């Protein structure tokens, strides 16, 4: 994965507990191009790597813009960005990647929950630029916690955005069943935000008859998982034939690392797909939020940072 060094040219308070960062190249040259829905990996002070969606217009190459929510349950990523990164600092990032691409559609519906607005904001910019038919529903706890509120209000596409505040009057809250009551063959739905928000949108859409091929989602973090029932299992490395035990309280990545076998990771939550490893034999217990149901059913790859095994042994293409 190619990495770039960039400078933080601007850091601003976008909303309560949300900081925005504008990144630019050191020599003033254009940054690698990106498409709506792209993200970058950022090496956060303290040694962590985290993924942040690009939220500026994809036509811009002089800067990347990201926004970071301070997470009360942060493992060091969001607090590192908020507290240890300042204007003028240098950061190491990856080139943009896109696991959440915008597809051509007759109509596009965007549903953002909190900081999940970042990739959808980039999509709105792109859709507005090409004159596409779209609508953005942006749900937050309050106006004070709504990043880009003023920017969206001043945008040329402001009339295609609806804000929904948890603490606001009932009349302005999102009535999802009404908004997507009639499945439309030429319409695509995109949703990003907390796991509960995504599950609500996806579950409602499917219950109303929307097809899986019309629904696109991106998680920003994994929901807490009950690990009480986790059992040990074994993995076999195909290239050497060696077998290693994975304890109930270990991930595959952690266990193999103890034996000098490194698997590239990033989010460590099964969200980003960095650690995806091919499975040659055995049945994974998928705990990721990256693969589709169809991809999981194939059982030919898994995310060793969080997923486990249903079979006694997994043979990995390592």
UniProtKB/TrEMBL annotation:
One of its GO terms (molecular function) is 2 iron, 2 sulfur cluster binding. Signal peptide: none annotated. Keywords: 2Fe-2S, Flavoprotein, FMN, Iron, Iron-sulfur, Metal-binding, Oxidoreductase. Its cofactor is FMN. It comes from Variovorax terrae. Residues 1-103 form the FAD-binding FR-type domain. It holds the Pfam family DmmA-like_N. This is PDR/VanB family oxidoreductase.
């Amino acid at each position: 994965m190619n990495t770039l060094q960039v400078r933080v040219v601007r850091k601003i308070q976008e909303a309560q507990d949300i900081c925005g960062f504008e990144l630019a190249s050191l020599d003033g040259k254009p940054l690698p191009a990106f498409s709506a829905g792209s993200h970058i990996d950022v090496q956060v002070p303290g040694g962590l790597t985290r993924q942040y969606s690009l939220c500026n217009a994809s036509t811009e190459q002089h800067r990347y813009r990201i926004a970071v929510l301070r997470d009360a349950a942060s493992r060091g990523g969001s607090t590192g960005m908020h507290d240890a990164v300042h204007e003028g600092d240098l950061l190491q990032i990856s080139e943009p990647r896109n696991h959440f691409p915008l597809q051509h559609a007759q109509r596009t519906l965007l549903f953002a929950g909190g900081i999940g607005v970042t990739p959808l904001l980039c999509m709105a910019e792109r859709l507005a630029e090409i004159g596409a038919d779209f609508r953005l529903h942006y749900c937050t706890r309050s106006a004070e916690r709504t990043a880009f509120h003023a920017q969206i209000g001043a945008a040329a596409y402001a009339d295609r955005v609806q804000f929904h505040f948890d603490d606001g009057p009932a009349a302005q809250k999102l009535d999802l069943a009404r908004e997507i009551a009639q499945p439309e063959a030429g319409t695509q739905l995109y949703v990003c935000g907390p796991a509960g928000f995504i599950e609500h949108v996806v579950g409602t859409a499917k219950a109303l008859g929307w097809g899986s091929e019309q629904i696109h989602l991106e998680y920003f973090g994994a929901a807490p998982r009950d690990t009480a029932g986790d059992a040990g299992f074994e993995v076999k490395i195909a290239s050497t034939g060696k077998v290693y035990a994975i304890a109930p309280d270990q991930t595959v990545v952690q266990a193999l690392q103890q034996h000098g076998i490194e698997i590239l990771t990033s989010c460590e939550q099964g969200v980003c797909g960095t650690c995806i490893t091919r499975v040659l034999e055995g049945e994974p217990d998928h705990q990721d939020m990256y693969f589709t149901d169809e991809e999981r059913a194939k059982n030919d790859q898994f995310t060793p940072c969080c997923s486990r095994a249903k079979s006694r042994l997994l043979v990995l293409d390592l």
